[in-house]
Design goal:
Number of strands: 0
Distance between the termini: 23 Å
Structural class: mainly alpha
Strand content: under 5%
Order of helices and strands: HHHH
Number of domains: 1
């Protein structure tokens, strides 16, 4: 029988992934609209959308793979939830930066402030793009480790 705590952890991870997928789907539409609004070509706008679509696909794959995780991996669930929280924050930072700079709430007269904001924006985009892939790989590795250790125990 699966303990209630582990089932709750699995459901918590799945809920975080569902929320992440929802945000990523809307973010793809926002990026596409942004690139079209700055008179970028259709090819460039579609390429950006396709790149973010890969992130959505890996989130959905992670959602499916979570059900195969063993109930013994309580610490691993906490790690995955932490990585998902980092991924959500990585989506929030670019949106906040765009809102703040679009409203001209901050004066960027100092070049180093602009450089820092620019680097945070770029880093957030890369984190939010590649972290779903990393999470999927970690979940897959953990599934294989669990399968291998369970087989070794059964063979003894």
């Amino acid at each position: 029988m699966i303990p209630l705590e582990t089932t709750t952890l699995k459901n918590g991870v799945r809920n975080h992934i569902q929320f992440l997928v929802t945000i990523q789907i809307f973010f793809v539409a926002v990026l596409y609209s942004f690139y079209r609004s700055i008179d970028s070509s259709e090819v460039v706008a579609n390429n950006v959308g396709n790149n973010w679509g890969v992130g959505v696909a890996f989130c959905i794959l992670s959602y499916l793979l979570v059900s195969f995780l063993s109930e013994k991996n309580v610490k691993f669930f906490a790690w995955i939830q932490g990585l998902l929280a980092i991924n959500l924050l990585a989506f929030i930072f670019p949106i906040i930066i765009v809102i703040v700079t679009a409203n001209n709430s901050l004066e960027f007269n100092i070049q180093w402030v602009f450089t820092i904001v620019n680097w945070v924006f770029i880093a957030s985009l890369y984190v939010s793009l590649y972290l779903p892939i990393i999470i999927t790989v970690l979940i897959t590795i953990m599934i294989f480790i669990t399968l291998l250790t369970d087989r070794k125990i059964e063979n003894l």
